[in-house]
Amino acid sequence: MLERSVLAENALQALHDEDYDRPFNTQNLNHTTMIFMGGREQVSLDGDWNFCVDLLDTGLRQKWFAMEPAEPRDREEPWDYDPYMGETVPVPSCWQMLKEKWYFFEGSAWYTRPVDFSPKPGKRTFLRVGAAQYDCKVFLNGEFVGNHYGGSTPFFAELTDRLKDGRNWLMLCVNNARTLDRVPMRNTDWFNYGGVYREVSLVETPESLIRDFFIHLKPDSHFACLTARVVAEGAETAEISIPELGIRETVQLVDGKGSIDIAAGPLLWRPDRPKLYDVHVSAGDDRVSDRVGFRTIERKGRELYLNGRPLWLRGISVHEDDDKRGKVITEDDLRQRYADAKEMGCNFVRLAHYPHHERAVELADEVGLLVWAEIPVYWAIDFANPATERDAQNQLLELIRRDRNRACVAIWSVGNENADTDARLAFMKGLAETARAEDPTRLIAAACLVNHTKLKIEDRLAAYLDIIGINEYYGWYDEDFSELPKILANSQPDRPVVISETGADADITEQGPKDGLFSEDYQASVYEKQIATLKDLDFVKGMSPWILYDFRTERRQGIFQRGFNRKGLIAADKVTRKKSFAILRSFYHMVAAGEVEEWERS
């Protein structure tokens, strides 16, 4: 017999579906609605929006979206909320960081603002939302426009035939509740922020429209040929130009799609020389541009190669988290993050555990840091549920199509620490196949499993990956550090391993201990042992310890955590370095010096 709580939850979900949710699931704003954004002008809709948290989803039941602006005394009946007046919040923002009473709120919230518009002949208009956590329903002038699922990727809604001349009202209903059919599911290890936390804008295009553009070095061309692909509506040809390389080529489009190989010998992008080229694309009346670097990333046996040279990934994991703004990221945040990583000697960063802001990868392109990018197929996922798989596939496609022109992105990761079941294998194998089909120029990875009974790396998913990621916390959660050398000695993988996570908490506040678990010295000793164990293994080709900065997570409420994961090498203030920072920096600079000597010899 089902427990009473489960029965109640099922009844609430049925009521939720029956009353208001189903009519709004008929138009999904998924990857098929995306448009290529490079160089497009945008009209910002950031700033103050009217706002209301909606604990009981009253707004959908009472159809707040259909209300028209009016003075309260002029309404025919009273309303529980007026979307057009009252409290405001800034967009982008996370509501937890605005008021203490919203700190642990999970559910729906409403955003409303006016949009003044004058239609232009021959133009189309799109709404772009950089990210809203997690389920976002879009309404314009009282009509439902579409629904997007996924809290970390941008989405688009075409408003061309819906906008009227003059004042329009745009409404977003955003819900961050954790549910069983989402990616991630209910149990995570980062804070469940809510809100419209990235930029919102209107984008105007001609009637002909470039939907997608992908350009890269052609594999096995010895760095002498580029391949470009264009997807456009309303045009029979497209033109690609790269002025610095003297390139101007025409692509024939069949049913809106076309590709071309272009002879070229670009200067190759690499971390110590992040060369980028201005690339321009036109189709019909539409024009876009991008800053693109060209490089190759390959796996041969146990080895990794960047532009044909051996590569050891000196990395660090990072979360999108700020102790004052939550998930809202600024240019200064990103530049500080990468300056700290560079100081440490990193040549790559793992952007955990979800797609980060697109500016994070643009800037990595500019400063010269390789990127491991991933989607939140994290811990327990309902792998047998088709809705969950659709969510994961969509998030992966939106991430790839947003970022595949970024030379820095070397790895698409499809999951993190999931139990090795038949359903999980089919689910994640499908994600790996999707990533390769959409982008054959990058490596596929996941954080895989260790068999603690056999003391060896063992995960069926590994056969479908290029890189086996291993999250291991020997010296911390697994206190018997002697098991790690045994596991590594017993494991002889046929492909490279990257230690995608390792580390230990260190509370360096006045409340923190001076020795033992959670002390700065204990964390430092864990790093010293890890480096000594890993540095000479021929199949370990990199590491991205956990993590650059301490970050907020509601699951950690111990006396030395107090709502934060304190495994950062730098405290949550993003200034105070712990002893382990210098230990890892010393190791990474030693590895980098050895690489330079090896390249010079070859």
Topology:
Blueprint: H1 4-21, E1 42-44, E2 47-54, H2 58-61, E3 88-91, E4 108-117, E5 123-129, E6 132-133, E7 135-140, E8 143-149, E9 155-158, E10 166-175, E11 195-196, E12 200-206, E13 209-217, E14 225-233, E15 237-242, E16 247-252, E17 257-263, E18 277-283, E19 286-292, E20 297-300, E21 303-306, E22 309-310, E23 313-318, H3 331-344, E24 348-351, H4 358-367, E25 370-374, H5 386-403, E26 409-416, H6 422-438, E27 443-448, E28 450-451, E29 456-457, E30 467-471, H7 483-490, E31 497-501, H8 520-534, E32 540-543, E33 551-552, E34 564-565, H9 579-601
Parallel strand pairs: 23-24, 23-32, 24-25, 25-26, 26-27, 27-30, 30-31, 31-32
Antiparallel strand pairs: 1-12, 2-3, 2-4, 4-10, 5-9, 5-12, 6-11, 7-8, 7-10, 13-14, 14-17, 15-16, 15-18, 18-19, 20-21, 21-22, 28-29, 33-34
Describe this structure in words.
This protein has 602 residues and is of the alpha+beta class. 21% of the residues lie in helices and 30% in strands. Helix 3 (331-344) packs across helix 4 (358-367), helix 5 runs parallel beside helix 6 (422-438) and helix 8 packs parallel to helix 9. The model is unreliable at 1-23 (pLDDT under 50).
